[in-house]
Amino acid sequence: MAQHAVTSGKVSIKLACVSFGISTTCYRYQPRLSAENAEIADHLIRLTHNQRN
């Protein structure tokens, strides 16, 4: 809803966030893609495996 208010050009991001009770961080949040999550998980597994050896 906040994004719609901003994209319609009627309010600023700050005003939309205050009006809808959300932070600007929440407004700008972009979820990571599942492929990126899988790559990160593989990297973490390799790191933990290397630490054990």
3D structure, described in words:
- With 53 residues, the chain is mainly α.
- The chain contains four helices and no strands.
- The chain has helices spanning 2-7, 13-20, 24-28, 34-52.
- The longest helix has 19 residues, at 34-52.
What is shown here, in short?
The chain is mainly alpha-helical. 72% of the residues lie in helices and 0% in strands.
Shape: rod-shaped
Oligomer: single chain
Beta content comes to: under 5%
Q: Please estimate the helix content.
A: over 70%
- Structural class comes to mainly alpha
Largest sheet, described in full? none
Note the run of SSEs as H and E: HHHH
Distance between the termini: 51 Å
Task: List the total number of helices.
Answer: 4
Spans where pLDDT lies below 50 across 5 or more residues: none
Radius of gyration from the alpha-carbon trace, in angstroms: 19 Å
Mean pLDDT: 90
**Domain module count:** 1
Secondary structure tally: strands: 0
Give keywords.
single chain, 53 residues, mainly alpha, 72% helix, 0% strand
Fold topology:
Layout: H1 2-7, H2 13-20, H3 24-28, H4 34-52
Protein name: Transposase
